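Box S2. Input/output pair 1.
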Amino acid sequence: MSNPNDSVLINFAPQLGRILIVAGLALATIGLLLYFARPLRLGALPGDLTFSGRGWQIAVPLGTSLLLSIVLTIVLNVLLRRR
């Protein structure tokens, strides 16, 4: 005798597969960004503020935040306009 929940799992499997693929791509992108962050000078762009004193340091990455915001806006607009 089959379990009624089996059909729910079978119907959800393609959606779960897509979610896992998107999550994997997002993690790979974040990993590449972190790997290349130093050569790209992320966190040390003009506009990034750093305050330090004796035994403390505060970084305010305004330039990096602006750059990432612009890049993500363009990428998401290109990806979401396809639909």
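Box S3. Input/output pair 2.
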Amino acid sequence: MRELRTGETLNPYRSVDGSPLECYDAIKAAMGIEGFKAFCRGCIFKYIWRYDKKGFPLSDLYKARNYLEKLIELVEDEECANKAED
């Protein structure tokens, strides 16, 4: 595995078999929102934990950031939904 360069695209949710269903959507559907948030937190922890141990620190930091952005998106969506209900 090579190191990701700054600005390089990371998309672990892309479909690999041409299916319109992305892995991200399947995981979220199977686990529910709270389960998926926990999954994202676990992935963030994993990539931060090991970023300086495998020889590809930026790659793992970019992956952690990707999951953090997904988690932020979920929390933002929840806050918007809660404000709309008020």
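Caption for Box S3: Helices lie at 23-50, 57-85. The CA atoms of residues 78 and 84 lie 10 Å apart.
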